[in-house]
Design goal:
Elements (H helix, E strand, L loop, with lengths): L8 H5 L2 H12 L5 H6 L5 H4 L4 E12 L11 E3 L4 E13 L5 E10 L20 H13 L5 E6 L6 H6 L5 E6 L12 H7 L2 E9 L9 E15 L12 E11 L10 E6 L6 H12 L2 H10 L14 H23 L15 H14 L15 H11 L11 H29 L2
Parallel strand pairs: 1-5, 5-6
Antiparallel strand pairs: 1-3, 2-3, 3-4, 6-10, 7-8, 8-9, 9-10
Helix pairs in contact: 9-10, 11-12, 11-13, 12-13
């Protein structure tokens, strides 16, 4: 998928026999989506060692074309207006540089239907929203080598159970507030935010989300302060503490353009905020949510075109979505790693035998000028990306290599690697008496 930038089995296989092999893989009952998801984090823990990691989680709905006669076993998505699968993913991002370090965990599933029991009448363990808490808890094990972890999420993750049970030493939460919660001592969360003093103004860059929300610059005011939220009256788990101490950062746009919705973020965090610089840092970390949004774009409309798949059953589509999520993450890592600013190891993406092939290729791709030399540390991700870019036709001049060049390079690299592995196998057979 990384090489061919597609989930189409015909294109993945390359020919009829390869297409059949790919089809058998996703049809095999021994291959499960859960097993693929477990493999998401194989190399992430090592990449996060000693870093402050933003563990950013979100959910994306992948809808597939269906008819009344051909639902493919898929459940409802898009508020019941379409049918498809849901991908909940957590991606590790370096808090200082914004570089993608790999996937942490998550889940992929298709709904059985609409649950007739109202959401609030079900315990958390029986709600889909449990995924926010479960994935955050899972991150404690995967990211145990990190110096610090901050789990970042949007409003759906504003769950009292998370605030009360997930935080630990050097393990924090940062979530955009959804509920106007009651505060200990009286009052509500949103009212408290409005009463905080203005701590400063700043321009922040907003990335494009869709044609209705293009890229723009917003001037915002900052307020922040300490709050203690109360356990909701309808919270069924009475073992949770009655209150939780948090810090609230409010960012409100000043004089927004008439044709756009003003930016207004209320960010809750377990990080203690002692000054204005710390509050702006929280805003900066929250802005890095765009990495997981980009992951889902690469998986769908701007890359692998997952939603165009014609696989015939929900079970196979769920497995395909799980594999596509990993492929999209690798694509982002390879493109980000080209400049070497974060000194990521090539082992984040490539296996040891693949790194050996890259090392053998490197001298054949270097030129006579300094700009045509691979000056990145050997076995770093930037070093590997330089080799892949050269294979893809990059001439070391003009603008840096982009996703298309990287794709062409990967298409060249893997046949070379397979040929080298075959040659080594044949040599070993010759030596056998």
């Amino acid at each position: 998928m990384v090489v061919r930038k597609t989930v189409c089995l015909r294109r993945l296989g390359g020919h009829r026999r390869g297409e059949e092999r790919a089809g058998r893989f996703f049809a095999n009952p021994k291959v499960t989506a859960a097993g693929i998801v477990v493999g998401w984090s194989d190399r992430t823990g090592a990449a996060c060692a000693g870093r402050h990691v933003l563990a950013i989680q979100d959910t994306s709905e992948a809808k597939f074309p269906t008819t009344a006669q051909r639902r493919r076993g898929l459940g409802p998505v898009k508020k019941g207006k379409a049918y498809g699968v849901l991908v909940h993913a957590m991606v590790a991002v370096d808090a200082a540089s914004g570089s993608c370090l790999g996937l942490v965990g998550g889940d992929v599933w298709s709904r059985d239907g609409v649950n007739p029991t109202p959401h609030r009448q079900r315990p958390l363990a029986e709600r889909e929203s449990m995924r926010w808490v479960a994935t955050a808890q899972q991150a404690k094990q995967v990211l145990k080598s990190a110096a610090m972890v901050t789990v970042v999420a949007d409003r759906e993750a504003d769950i009292y159970s998370s605030w009360a049970s997930v935080p630990a030493t050097n393990f924090h939460l940062l979530t955009r507030a959804m509920s106007d919660r009651l505060l200990a001592g009286g009052g509500t969360l949103f009212a408290a935010a409005a009463q905080f003093a203005v701590a400063g103004r700043c321009k922040i860059e907003l990335r494009a989300h869709d044609p209705a929300h293009p890229k723009r610059t917003a001037v915002v005011e900052l307020r922040y302060g300490e709050v203690r939220i109360c356990r909701p009256r309808d919270e069924t788990d009475r073992s949770l503490p009655p209150t939780v101490l948090l810090w609230l950062v409010e960012v409100c746009e000043v004089d927004p353009p008439a044709e756009v919705e003003p930016l207004h973020w209320r960010l809750l965090t377990t990080h203690e905020i002692t000054d204005t610089a710390g509050a702006w840092q929280i805003v900066g970390w929250y802005q890095l949510r765009w990495v997981i949004e980009q992951l889902f774009r690469v998986m769908k409309s701007q890359g692998l075109q997952l939603e165009d798949s014609q696989l015939c059953s929900a079970e196979r589509l769920v497995k395909l979505a799980a594999a596509a999520t990993k492929a999209a993450c690798i694509d982002i890592q390879l493109t980000q790693g080209r400049d070497g600013t974060d000194q990521m190891p090539a082992s984040n993406i490539f296996s040891e035998p693949e790194i050996e092939t890259l090392e053998a290729l490197n001298p054949t791709l270097e030129g006579s000028t300094e700009r045509q030399q691979n000056l990145h540390p050997v076995a770093s991700l930037a070093w590997a990306a330089w080799i892949i870019a050269r294979l893809g036709g990059w001439n070391c001049y003009y603008k840096p290599p982009g996703p298309i060049t990287m794709r062409r390079g990967m298409e060249q690299f893997y046949p070379i690697h397979r040929g080298r592995q075959l040659e080594m196998m044949l040599k070993q057979e010759v030596r056998i008496p």
